[in-house]
Design a protein that fits this description.
This protein is α/β, with parallel strands linked by helices. The protein contains nine helices and ten strands. The structure holds zinc ion (2 copies).
Length: about 240
Amino acid sequence: MRPRALSFFRGIITAAVDVLFPSHCVSCGAAVFYSAHLLCAHCRGSIEPVRDCCPRCSGILTGDGCTLCGNRRFYPSRHITAAEYEGPLEKALHALKFSGRRRLHRPLVGMLHAALGETAAGVEMVTSVPMNRDKKWERGFNQSELMARRLAQRLGMPYIALLAENPRSATQRKLHSRDRYLNVLGRYRAINSTAAFGKRVLLVDDVLTTGATINECARMLFSGGASDVIALTVARAGIKKLENL
Ligand SMILES: [Zn+2]
Ligand SMILES: [Zn+2]
């Protein structure tokens, strides 16, 4: 089919979907077109970017330095996060993870892409924090993988699964920061190491809390032979929000 004819039919289909199946913003409930992917322009505009953070890991800075990478071994050479885990972004991530609203990954990938900016030039492949088979089956998808795959497409880079989560891993929920760093040790393993060997890898996850998960994943990527790991998350949550993740 010719490109003009194709775009004509696409327009008809989009209009039919908007007429027959009206969508609503998951944050404020306003009616939105299908193309808005469940998040209205007003709510998108009110998402707060992370400010005054550690230039290396995007952690919270105090008078004593960075609360995240300040006094521990932090494996990623850099961690970038797009925004604070609050308001419309919190609602969008919650709806994506727990209500199966997959379409929401699209605006979130737009945020990841913008936050990554020119740092993209320093990476060669994209991967994501994995989810074990049982959990993925229960949820239907791994939201971090969904976002990482689409981001890789946008960047024109390969997405490669380089990590696997061991079965029956204990949950991180409701644990304090130090316990999370201990609990996560041995939770993941490197796979497809040949593909990662000597490569600069972009590791994608949804939410940064204590940094324990991305730190352990980065450690395993290095053990699998990666030459550099840059981590990228959609949102940074305070420890108080852990119960909802
Ligand atoms: Zn809204
Ligand atoms: Zn830091």
